[in-house]
Design brief:
Layout: H1 2-23, E1 47-54, H2 58-69, H3 72-75, E2 78-85, H4 88-96, E3 102-106, H5 107-115, E4 120-137, E5 152-155, H6 160-171, E6 181-184, H7 187-195, E7 201-205, H8 208-214, E8 218-233, H9 234-239, H10 241-260, H11 262-273, H12 277-284, H13 288-292, H14 305-320, H15 330-333, H16 336-345
Helix pairs in contact: 2-10, 2-11, 4-5, 5-14, 10-16
């Protein structure tokens, strides 16, 4: 009898041990009253999101490649179908044709896309993609825009830099045709035209601005910035609101990863862009997120007033040049509430950047 009692006691103890052992290492934060490891609940159902980005765009490419090569989307219960696209014109076409749910695109191309009856919204600002600069030869006597009166400026018409130039001239009281002549010039021909004295100044964008400055071929007398925009199809936003929210937080995680893994990410994209690595560093460092994000709350992808103002100027320019045929109400196209909700989902005290892994 005594042996039977001892055997039963050992059996009960074994059951208790196995039960406790089963909970070792298991997240039990969802148990009633247990708040020791409480974090935002990770949704169990993964949603597929089709993402496009231009293969040769620096910051835009940084985001696309990072999402493609890490587990950031998976961490946010998203499955990415990620598509590098040859250029922004092809990217715009893919968005309009509903082949994508989200796109990383420049501000001007975003305006042209939205103006072409794309039913979408703006969910994030990826910061500066680089500069649009008005440049003169390094030894030119011209120091400011007002001194270009009666001169020729090389610019590619119907582009973001053309829009920027018209704004600069207006601020200085100058007018195209009356005070300055704008010469429609391809980017590849501008420097030769300037060096051959066929034009007196040129407008170009990075990485050429960085390259010409480093080589002391030209210097800038006025500049502005182009911004990265994240467009999302309104159908996706409406049908998958929680997935859209998680995607915003995935973008924040991506910003942090890019900033803290610059050599890796630059190495991923240099083959695509065909740009020397030191130029990638120089241009990308203009982007504040790339340069200075050290924790999740540093990831400034919010829709700022400056960002909105830039989009409004581009929209007005595109309408004036008949590149779009309807007035865009920019504020109505930006969904700040999505950013506000997403912010509540990330607890910076418990967010662990080490949880992001390179998977390919």
């Amino acid at each position: 009898m005594k042996k039977i009692i001892i055997s039963m006691a050992l059996l009960i103890a074994g059951v208790i041990f196995i039960t406790n052992g089963y909970n070792c290492g298991k997240d039990t934060s969802d148990l009633p009253g247990d708040k020791t490891n409480a974090i935002t609940e990770t949704p169990t159902a993964s949603v597929t999101i089709r993402i496009g980005f231009p293969r040769k765009g620096l910051i835009l490419n940084h985001y696309g490649e990072t999402l493609s090569r890490t587990n950031i989307l998976a961490k946010n219960s998203l499955v990415g179908s990620i598509n590098p696209i040859e250029d922004e014109v092809a990217l715009r076409t893919a968005v309009i044709n509903k082949s994508l749910d989200a796109a990383f695109i420049s501000d001007f191309q975003a305006i042209l896309t939205l103006g072409a009856d794309f039913n979408g919204v703006i969910i994030a600002n990826l910061g500066s993609l680089g500069r649009s600069d008005l440049m003169v030869l390094i030894d030119s006597p011209i120091q400011k825009i007002s001194e270009l009166k009666g001169k020729k400026i090389g610019v590619t018409l119907n582009t973001a830099e053309h829009s920027a130039l018209l704004g600069w001239l207006k601020r200085e009281g100058l007018q195209e045709g009356r005070d300055v002549e704008l010469v429609n010039t391809n980017d590849n021909d501008k420097l030769n035209a300037l060096q051959g004295f066929k034009i007196d100044a040129l407008v170009t964008i990075d990485p050429r601005v960085e390259d010409y400055t480093r080589k002391k071929l030209c210097r800038s007398i006025y500049d502005s910035h182009n911004y990265g925009v994240v467009l999302m199809a309104k159908d996706f936003y409406r049908q998958q609101p929680q997935a859209a929210l998680r995607f915003v937080n995935a973008l924040k995680e991506t910003t942090l990863f890019i900033s803290t893994h610059k050599p890796d990410v630059n190495n991923w994209i240099k083959g695509y862009c065909g740009i020397e690595e030191d130029l990638i560093w120089g241009v990308a460092s203009i982007n504040i997120g790339y340069f200075s994000t050290r924790k999740i709350n540093d990831a400034k992808i919010y829709l700022s007033d400056t960002f909105a103002g830039n989009l409004k100027n581009l929209a007005a320019y595109a309408l004036q040049q008949k590149l779009i045929y309807k007035t865009l109400i920019v504020n109505d196209l930006m969904v700040q509430e999505l950013q506000d909700e997403a912010k509540k989902e990330i607890d910076p005290l418990k967010y662990d950047p080490a949880g992001v892994k390179v998977i390919k």
